[in-house]
Amino acid sequence: MNAILIAVTGTSPEPWERRFRTLAPQRDLRVWPDRMGDVRDIAYACVWKPAPGVLARCPNLKAVLSVGAGVDHVFTDPDLPPVPVVRIVDADLTMRMGEYVVLHVLMHHRFQRLYDAQQRARVWREDRQPAASAVTVGIMGLGVLGRHAADLLRRIGFSVAGWSRTAKSLEGVATFHGADGLDGFLALTDILVCLLPSTPDTKGLIDLALLRKLKRNGALGGPFLINAGRGATQVEADILSALDDGTLAGATLDVFESEPLSDASPLWTHPKVTITPHNAAASVPSALVRNMLAQIERFEAGGPLQHVVDPRAGY
Length: 315
Ligand code: NDP
Ligand code: OXD
Description:
Helix 1 (about 15-25) crosses helix 9 (about 285-300) and helix 3 (about 90-110) crosses helix 5 (about 145-155). This protein is α/β, with parallel strands linked by helices. It starts with a strand and ends in a 15-residue tail after the last helix. The strands form 2 sheets. It has a 7-stranded parallel beta sheet with strand order 8-7-6-9-10-11-12. The protein contains 9 helices and 12 strands. It is about 30% helix and about 15% strand. It is elongated and about 65 Å long. Oxalic acid (OXD) binds near residues 68, 69, 70 and 283. NADPH dihydro-nicotinamide-adenine-dinucleotide phosphate binds near residues 198, 281 and 315.
């Protein structure tokens, strides 16, 4: 009893299994699809995009643990059993996202794509360079990841604004919330960083109408977009239009409406776009299995599960 199931798709279960066996050799470990054994023994499922219906086969499941910070990949299962779903909150993942956001904010702020192009053409020409303090980075999503990124950016010297669903107060950050706060937030923003979850409320939020509300006369000469949250929040056709008509000066995209990004997408070769393969903050077994085991052991000792997702909000 109390077996742990590893049920992942699109990635190998092997490193997860190896790490569980190293840290908890005494635990009964099962692996989808071939080694589920007697499903009545399975109490916990550690999952990434689990195949629909797999979790419903485990009648004694007590909790689902997402191996990522996002949980949209769990809620797409129409047969998801009514057990708590917990997500990863871990310094390793948080710091990885912080690195990504800082890297891409600075890349746009320092016009690095321009200098890359100039280097290819052997052009020695210095462009203008506004100070970080003249640039506002607007972060959509002031959760665990958004707050950490805000703190890093503030320490580098950027002006930072943030937008969330509910009101927040963060030192040194101009905060906005809800539909009523969105336009004011966008009007301040030179570099928009999206760290939102995929929920029914955030679907398609980053469209042309929204991008047109970003600051037009800012120090960078035009606004930039960085999306490292979820692709479902963006309308890619609108982002392309915004890049082509000058609404956006450039974009970094780590997440896409459909992943992997199709070979046919014009985003791949767009001169103003930087693409990464949904690796802004990878979930790494060496760091995260310890976190999941701690959740399970605390729960078995009678303590609460932490970072349980509200299924109605979807994050
Ligand atoms: P949290 O749940 O801690 O934070 C989510 C934030 O989004 C909160 O501030 C929340 O507002 C806000 N939010 C949610 N819905 C809305 C809405 N409708 N309007 C305005 N704000 C909203 O999540 P994390 O910070 O840990 O992670 C954020 C997301 O990043 C994950 O859900 C995942 O999709 C993505 N991610 C991507 C990775 C990658 O490699 N690309 C890696 C890890 C995560 P409030 O504070 O009011 O609740
Ligand atoms: C996550 C992700 O949600 O990697 O953690 O996308």
